[in-house]
């Protein structure tokens, strides 16, 4: 059957539009202990894989300024919602969050299910601790590099500034107190506060996070020496100079004490979230680091 010129053009445009989004997909993977994790992919399926690991109270939405940057579309951009967050499952047992090995197994499950070859791991805040747990449990032979972003190196008073009222409110059984605490926690993430729409989305992100997870995570012991301390791949730390949730100097000093080869980049106009506060510079740093890896 012959198609009219208009019908042919419509089909052609539809096919072209579909091809633009062919690399965008969402799926779930199951971790070693049965927890289902929501995974998202965008960018070039043939590009170097970058796996993004968000922080406490976040989700894959934290990385929207990276996933939507045209300059990063040549990479295979993989994100996932960590256990207890976003669209992933939320176990009710504290052990599911207190044991760092389980978070490491989540990363391994994403790497295996996505068949990502030599990915670069990018971990923000708590995501940095997760990278260390992965390195401790699985080593670095399957990775090309690791980028720690305002990372939790260890959960110690020397490295984590005290905000007792905020953290107490976040774990309160009273809903209003709990939500107010999470809002204040999010405010502390930024030196340059985000626009109203972005902040509202981040606050909704936080409200979806498991309460059991928030209560359990502070007692996690990070396998720093076994993980970061034994890494042979290139490792870079990015810190915002105005971080109020992690002490950058103390954290970096501790990281260098176990691995003196880590490199560092400072963001002078950022707090705890330079990938949102200075996204253009962060994305260029990310691309340059990824390109330097083998």
Automatic annotation (TrEMBL):
Residues 1-22 form the signal peptide. Residues 48-279 form the AB hydrolase-1 domain. The keyword Transcription regulation does not apply. GO terms for molecular function: hydrolase activity. InterPro entries: AB_hydrolase_1 (IPR000073), AB_hydrolase_fold (IPR029058), AB_hydrolase_sf (IPR050266), Epox_hydrolase-like (IPR000639). This is Alpha/beta hydrolase. Keywords: Hydrolase, Signal. It comes from the Bacteria.
């Amino acid at each position: 059957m012959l198609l009219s010129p208009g019908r042919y053009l419509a089909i052609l445009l539809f096919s072209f539009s579909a091809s633009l989004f062919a690399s965008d997909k969402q799926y779930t993977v199951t971790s070693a202990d049965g927890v289902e994790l929501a995974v998202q992919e965008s960018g070039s399926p043939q590009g170097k894989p970058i796996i993004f690991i968000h922080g406490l109270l976040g989700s894959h939405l934290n990385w929207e300024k990276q996933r939507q940057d045209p300059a990063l579309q040549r990479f295979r951009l993989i994100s996932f919602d960590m256990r207890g967050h976003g669209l992933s499952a939320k176990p009710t047992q504290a052990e599911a969050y207190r044991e760092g090995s389980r978070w490491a197994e989540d990363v391994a499950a994403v790497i295996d299910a996505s068949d990502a070859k030599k990915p670069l791991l990018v971990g923000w805040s708590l995501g940095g601790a997760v990278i260390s747990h992965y390195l401790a449990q699985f080593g670095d032979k399957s990775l090309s590099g690791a980028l720690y972003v305002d990372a939790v190196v260890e959960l110690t008073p020397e490295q984590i500034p005290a905000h007792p009222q905020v953290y107490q409110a976040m774990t309160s059984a009273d809903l209003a107190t709990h939500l107010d605490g999470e809002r204040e926690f999010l405010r502390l993430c930024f030196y340059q506060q985000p626009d109203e729409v972005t902040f509202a989305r981040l606050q909704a992100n936080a409200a979806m996070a498991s309460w059991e997870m928030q209560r359990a995570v502070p007692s996690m012991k990070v396998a720093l020496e076994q993980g970061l301390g034994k890494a042979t791949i290139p490792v870079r730390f990015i810190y915002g100079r105005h971080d109020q949730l992690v002490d950058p100097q103390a954290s970096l000093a501790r990281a260098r004490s176990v691995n003196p080869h880590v490199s560092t980049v400072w963001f002078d106009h950022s707090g705890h979230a330079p990938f949102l506060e200075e996204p253009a510079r962060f994305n260029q740093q990310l691309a340059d680091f990824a390109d330097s890896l083998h």
